[in-house]
TrEMBL record:
Chain positions covered by the region annotation Disordered: 200-221
Source superkingdom: Eukaryota
Signal peptide bounds: 1-22
GO biological process entries: regulation of glutamate receptor signaling pathway; regulation of postsynaptic membrane neurotransmitter receptor levels
Entry keywords, A to Z: Signal
Keyword Signal included in the entry's annotation: yes
Entry annotated with the keyword Signal: yes
Source species of the chain: Cottoperca gobio (Frogmouth)
Protein name: Uncharacterized protein LOC115022915
């Protein structure tokens, strides 16, 4: 198949799939290297991880994100994000003003049978419904190895001064992203870019292993004990689907989408 035909097919698929948003707001880096470490945590970058303090460079089941703030341009701050975790569906960073009300902007790194894809979604913090949304994201790069997804990306024009950073996972069935399961969070203070506090080593937080059969309902207000700059509150419930197998059907469809994304890069 010629490249042009592949793009055409992909475009048609995008057109006929109501749940699939456009991807024109996403731009990919031509550098595919992804190197995520704890270097700079608590010093140059805010780190949030589950289990607390786990090493994203290791081979363990470590869900990790870091956020670095750069240039305070007039249009807002640019955030550079690293994200790493085990999932056969997706891992995501969420930015929100208040995790118990309003909405969360989700930045999703996902895999479909080993192919990397990136999407943005809006999460309703009240009913946990996801809606497609087109937030500009740049310099996206990601790799998938087995159940491990790693990605990096930049979010320009962030104008809020204080944001809760949420870290979580979810399933991907065909083109449908399952509910965002929030596993940990931190507070990002954009007025003091270089000195954000890392995740607190709070082993008292409930381990995110208690599987609940119900969907992640708005159980977010589990424990809102907030340290001044950092929280390590475990919110939401885990879904038993996290490490389940990727659903085989519609994989081909999304592979074409992923190919389209790759060709656009
Ligand atoms: C990425 O592209 C820029 C210019 O668009 C180029 O300067 C740079 O060398 C490229 N990097 C890689 C890794 O290809
Ligand atoms: C990854 O980053 C660490 C520290 O920043 C560095 O020591 C290491 O060499 C890097 N690895 C690769 C493959 O670039
Ligand atoms: C997470 O990934 C590591 C490899 O980095 C693997 O050893 C481990 O079994 C994975 N855990 C799950 C739950 O898939
Ligand atoms: C950021 O905001 C400025 C001013 O509003 C605008 O000119 C620029 O295009 C925006 N950049 C992005 C990536 O949205
Ligand atoms: C978040 O919203 C709840 C109400 O939904 C409110 O009680 C709480 O004070 C808010 N938290 C912050 C930090 O504004
Ligand atoms: C979030 O969901 C609640 C309950 O379904 C609804 O009342 C509210 O309008 C939704 N908010 C947004 C921003 O969609
Ligand atoms: C993928 O993961 C396996 C096991 O964790 C490792 O041996 C292998 O080198 C990894 N492959 C790449 C390309 O990183
Ligand atoms: C995936 O979606 C299909 C319908 O599109 C449904 O039949 C199937 O049960 C779903 N699988 C899971 C694991 O939710
Ligand atoms: C953010 O940092 C500024 C400057 O250090 C401080 O004045 C402000 O209170 C901080 N905000 C929060 C919510 O911690
Ligand atoms: C929240 O956590 C604090 C400290 O771990 C604990 O004292 C408090 O009882 C918890 N509150 C709830 C509602 O679980
Ligand atoms: C939060 O940040 C402020 C400003 O840097 C600092 O004074 C305060 O001690 C920090 N609080 C915690 C709990 O780290
Ligand atoms: C997933 O990918 C592997 C190798 O990349 C392939 O053998 C397998 O058939 C794929 N599964 C589906 C459902 O497409």
């Amino acid at each position: 198949m010629s490249r042009g035909l592949i793009l055409l097919v992909a475009a048609l698929v995008v057109y006929v799939s109501p749940d699939v948003q456009g991807t024109a707001h996403l731009s990919f880096s031509n550098n595919t290297e992804v190197n995520i470490t704890r270097d700079g945590c608590g010093d140059t970058k805010l780190c949030v991880a589950t289990p607390d303090g786990c090493d994203p460079a290791g081979n363990t089941n470590c869900l990790f994100t870091s956020v670095t703030t750069s240039s305070q341009a007039p249009s807002g701050t640019e955030l550079s994000v690293e994200l790493r975790g085990n999932s056969t569906g997706y891992i995501a960073l969420g930015l929100t003003l208040n995790a118990t009300e309003g909405t969360t902007m989700l930045f999703i790194c996902a895999q479909n049978n080993g192919s990397f894809l990136f999407r943005t979604r809006q999460n309703n913090n009240t009913d946990n419904e996801l809606t497609p949304t087109e937030r500009i994201v740049r310099e996206i790069r990601g790799v998938v190895n087995g159940s491990v997804i790693k990605c990096e990306f930049d979010i320009p024009n962030v104008t809020d001064t204080t944001l809760s950073v949420l870290l979580g996972v979810g399933s991907l069935n065909g083109s449908v992203f399952g509910a965002f399961d929030n596993r940990n969070s931190g507070l990002l203070n954009l007025t003091q870019p270089v000195s954000n506090v890392p995740t607190t080593a709070a082993p008292t937080t409930a381990a995110p292993t208690t599987a609940a059969p119900t969907t992640a309902a708005p159980t977010t207000a589990a424990n809102t004990t907030m340290a001044a700059n950092t929280t390590a509150t475990t919110m939401g419930t885990t879904t038993p689907n996290d490490s389940g197998a990727v659903q085989p059907h519609a994989v081909l469809l999304l592979s074409v989408l992923a190919l389209c994304v790759m060709l656009r890069a």
